[in-house]
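Supplementary Data S3. Sequence and structure tokens for construct A.
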Amino acid sequence: MKIDRYKPPKSSFLSVDKDIATIKELFINNERLCRLLFRTNKDPLNTQNLTQDEKIELFEKRYIRNVPKVIIDEECLNYVVINFTNFIPNATNTEFRDNAIVIEIICHYDQWQIKDGMLRPYRIAGEIDSMLNEARLSGIGVLNFIGAEQVLLTPEYGGIHLTYLAVHGEDDKIKFANPADEEKFLEEFVTNVL
């Protein structure tokens, strides 16, 4: 009789890499987002889509990053940084951790103003939010937008932080009989953790 002693690891931390790859894939397939990040003219949305080489450059020059360090490059003026943070135990399934995903949008101030009074960081935020809010990603269930704030990093760079709550899986997320209970949970999460 064979005794199986191996137990595969079960942890939400093990899905972070795959989830980052999924988010990056969403970003790179959004032509408007790519143009807003890569094109530095005043009308980036009214330009041609990026070539395959330009999309590769988005990653090589680290326009889209998953390490929370931005090295300022004179040629690269707009950045998106993907951060997984504030992990807490899931209330109903101890194998999973709920967490926040913070998307930092950082732009050189000379790049903020684009055509017709639009602001580049907010256009980028709009593209990202339309992809991530209520999205289902592997290993992290439904993402819920919980807030955004403007940040001023240096005298030359500033932007916006978008924050999403990732509640793990359909079966293991908290089941609320009353929608007010879910609102209370989100308020407590934002107050106590973020």
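Construct B, processed identically:
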Amino acid sequence: MLTGLRRTLPLLITLLCLPALASAKTLLILGDSLSAAYGIKEHQGWVQLLRDSLADQGQYRVINASVSGETSGGGLARLPTLLETHRPDIVVVELGGNDGLRGHPIKLLGKNLSGIVTLCRQQGAQVLLLGMRIPPNYGARYTDRFTAVYGDLAIKHQLPLVPFFLDQIATRPEWMQADGIHPKAEAQAQILENVMPHLQPLL
């Protein structure tokens, strides 16, 4: 009898957990090095802080699909597989910074981000867009058009938007790594604070 109980116990535990697993929401973070914890330990990054924060709020699964150096085009190319694999309820899109730093065409950036939003919605996922800004390396006109892409997309697709992902961080040199692009571990909590007010209504 004990042997039979030992055999059935794992199955019983699995069955008891199924309702919780079925009700869990999946969040997919589609980003670049800013979300991939570049230059810091993974557990210090804002995505892990988000994961820790949501652990106290219910059943959530956070998938970090961020890749250092990723562009909007790269994210768009990877997205179908990610959607098929993870079936996310919410997709947080943090892309475009590398497009801007490399001087990619603004129209192409907008087209790629719009394509990402469309694919996510076709799969039934809600989207949160994280706005980015870049240094004026390519002149004021390019920089202004780059910044405007995010607001324009938010209006076009009626998206929740974080106006500037690195708000209150990029202007604090003590919170930035030596490259002046990537935030240190000390800044990750502020990043999460920038994101959460816009993410919370989707949860």
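The first strand starts at residue 25 and ends at 31. The CA atoms of residues 156 and 174 lie 37 Å apart.
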